[in-house]
Design brief:
Helices cover about 50% and strands about 5% of the residues. The chain has helices at about 10-20, 30-45, 50-60, 80-90, 105-120, 125-140, 150, 155-170, 175-190, 205-225, 240-245, 255, 280-290, 310-315, 320, 325-330, 335-345, 360-365, 415-425, 430-445, and strands spanning about 65-70, 75, 300-305, 370-375, 385-390, 395-400. Strands 4-3-5-6 form a four-stranded mixed sheet, covered by helices on one side. Strand 1 and strand 2 (about 75) form a beta hairpin.
C-alpha cells in the first residue's frame, strides 16, 4: 500500500458488506419499507409529470432508449430515465426523509435502480437488494459528519445521493466487491449540488436527485467495465468529506459497522405536506392553534423556537420567508407555510401556485411570524415544532409538536402510503384505472421481472 494510506479503506469495508446481501435475506420490515418507497416514488413522478420543470428536463434529454420515464410515453436510456424520474420524484418536495440526515433517499435510489434493472438486470429480487442497499448507504453517509455538508453550502441529498445510487446499482447488477469500490470511487467525482436555489426559488434543487441517480448508474457501469476509482473516496485527504464537509474526521463506523444487520431505512419518514421537512411540525402546531378557535386577526405575533441548523434554509432572510418570491421558494419558507396551514387548515399541492402565495390573509399572518434559536433543539436527530402566539389581549398560547408525523415516532401505514399515491396520481392527471394498474405492477415488482410498461402514458 502507498505510504500513509489504510490497508483496508472505508469503501472496501462497505463493499464487502454490500456484496454479502443476497435475495431473500432482508428482514420483512425492510422489504416492506422498500415496497412503500417504490409506491411513493411512482406517485410522486406522476404528480409532477405535467409540471414545467419536468417538461424542460424531458425535452433536454437527447438519449432515447428502452427505459421508462414514469408517466410519459417517451422512453429513454437508463441514465436518462433515472434523471427524469429522480427529478420528478424530488420536484414537489413531497418525498421521504431520513430524520438523522436530513436526506431524501428514495427519490434518488428508486429511479436509479429501477432504470438500471429495466435495461441491464430485470431480476426483481436484485432490484430489492439494490434499493435497500442504496438507501441505506445514502442515509448512513449523512450521519458520518452531521450537518457539515449543509453548513458548507451543499445539498446532502445530491452529494450522498450519487454515492448511494452507485452502491444501489452496483448491488442490483451484482458487481463484485472490487467493482463496487471502483463505482463508489468514481461516483465521488460525480457528486455535486449547491443550495443557492434558496436565493430566489430556482429549480436546481429539483434536479439534484435525478442527477445523483444517473450518476450512480454511470459510475456502476464504468466500474463494471474496469474503470478504476479511488478506494479512499470517503476518508482520503482529498476525498468526499474533505471536499463537501471540510473535514476528513468523521464517524465512519456509522456507515459500516453494522451495515446489513441493522437497517436505518426502516425509520424513513413520509411527509404529510409537500414542502421542506423541518417546517412540517410547525404547520401541525399552526393547525392546532387554529383548531382552538383562535382567529388570525386575534394574533399580534407568533414566535417559533427553531434549530440553528435550519435557519439559513427556512428562516432567513425573514422578509423573503414571510413573502416568498414564487411557489418553489414558498416550500422552504416556514412563516408562509405556518400561515397557510393556519388559514387553510393544511398545506397541499395547491398551496404553491402564484395565486396561493399571494393570498392576503396568509401573507398578513406570515408577516407576524418570527423565530428564536433554541440551543437545545434536537435537530437533526428529531424534527420538532414549537410556537408561542401572543394575542391582541396580551395572552399567550403555545403549541408543540414533539416529532415529525409520518416518521419513526408516528409512521404511516401501507394504506396511508396508498392513499397518498392516489392523491398524487390524481393530481398528475391519471384516472383510477391507471393508478390501480400501477399498484398491481408494484405489488409483484420484487418477485418477477422488472417491466415498467404500465407506468408509461
Amino acid at each position: 500500500m502507498t505510504s500513509g494510506l489504510p490497508e483496508t479503506s472505508v469503501a472496501e469495508t462497505l463493499a464487502q458488506k454490500i456484496v454479502a446481501l443476497k435475495p431473500g435475506g432482508l428482514p420483512a420490515a425492510t422489504t416492506r419499507k422498500c415496497e412503500d418507497l417504490v409506491i411513493d416514488v411512482v406517485g410522486l413522478c406522476i404528480t409532477a409529470r405535467n409540471e414545467d420543470y419536468i417538461k424542460s428536463a424531458l425535452a433536454a434529454c437527447d438519449d432515447d432508449g428502452p427505459c421508462t420515464a414514469i408517466g410519459h410515453a417517451r422512453t429513454l436510456t437508463a441514465s436518462g430515465a433515472a434523471f427524469v424520474n429522480g427529478t420528478a420524484a424530488h420536484g414537489e418536495d413531497f418525498d421521504d426523509t431520513f430524520e438523522g440526515g436530513p436526506v431524501h433517499a428514495a427519490a434518488v435510489i428508486v429511479p436509479a435502480v429501477l432504470a438500471a434493472c429495466e435495461k441491464h438486470n430485470p431480476d426483481g429480487r436484485m432490484a430489492l437488494i439494490g434499493i435497500a442497499a442504496g438507501c441505506e448507504v445514502l442515509c448512513r453517509l449523512s450521519v458520518v459528519v452531521p450537518k457539515a455538508v449543509h453548513r458548507a453550502g451543499f445539498h446532502p441529498t445530491a452529494i450522498f445521493g450519487a454515492m448511494g445510487a452507485a452502491a444501489g446499482v452496483a448491488a442490483a447488477l451484482g458487481l463484485t466487491a472490487r467493482q463496487t469500490v471502483d463505482a463508489l470511487g468514481i461516483a465521488g467525482s460525480m457528486a455535486s449540488g449547491i443550495i443557492e436555489y434558496l436565493a430566489e426559488g430556482a429549480w436546481t434543487k429539483r434536479l439534484h436527485a435525478g442527477w445523483a441517480a444517473q450518476s450512480g448508474i454511470r459510475a456502476a457501469l464504468l466500474a463494471q467495465q474496469g474503470f478504476v476509482g479511488p478506494r479512499t473516496v470517503f476518508e482520503g485527504v482529498h476525498g468526499l468529506f474533505h471536499g463537501f464537509a471540510r473535514t476528513t474526521q468523521g464517524d465512519y463506523d456509522a456507515l459500516t459497522k453494522d451495515f446489513g444487520e441493522r437497517w436505518v431505512i426502516d425509520t424513513l419518514a413520509f411527509k404529510p405536506y409537500p414542502c421542506g421537512t423541518m417546517a412540517q411540525p410547525y404547520i401541525d402546531c399552526a393547525r392546532r392553534l387554529a383548531g382552538r378557535g383562535v382567529r388570525a386577526d386575534d394574533i399580534r405575533e407568533i414566535v417559533c423556537e427553531v434549530a440553528e441548523g435550519t435557519v439559513h434554509r427556512l428562516w432567513e432572510p425573514l422578509a423573503d420567508k414571510q413573502r416568498p418570491r414564487n411557489g418553489y421558494a414558498a416550500k422552504f419558507a416556514v412563516p408562509y407555510l405556518l400561515a397557510a396551514g393556519f388559514v387553510h387548515g393544511g398545506v397541499g399541492l395547491s398551496a404553491f401556485t402564484e395565486r396561493a402565495i399571494r393570498d392576503p390573509q396568509v401573507l398578513a399572518l406570515a408577516a407576524k411570524v418570527k423565530f428564536v434559536i433554541d440551543p437545545d433543539n434536537p435537530y437533526p436527530d428529531n424534527y420538532t415544532g414549537h410556537l408561542s402566539a401572543t394575542l391582541n389581549d396580551g395572552s399567550v398560547i403555545e403549541e408543540r409538536q414533539p416529532w415529525l408525523r409520518g416518521g419513526a415516532q408516528q409512521p404511516l401505514t401501507r394504506q396511508d402510503v396508498v392513499d397518498k399515491f392516489a392523491l398524487n396520481v390524481g393530481h398528475g392527471g391519471w384516472d383510477r384505472a391507471q393508478g390501480d394498474a400501477a399498484l398491481k405492477l408494484m405489488a409483484g415488482l420484487f418477485e418477477g421481472t422488472i417491466d415498467l410498461g404500465a407506468l408509461r402514458s
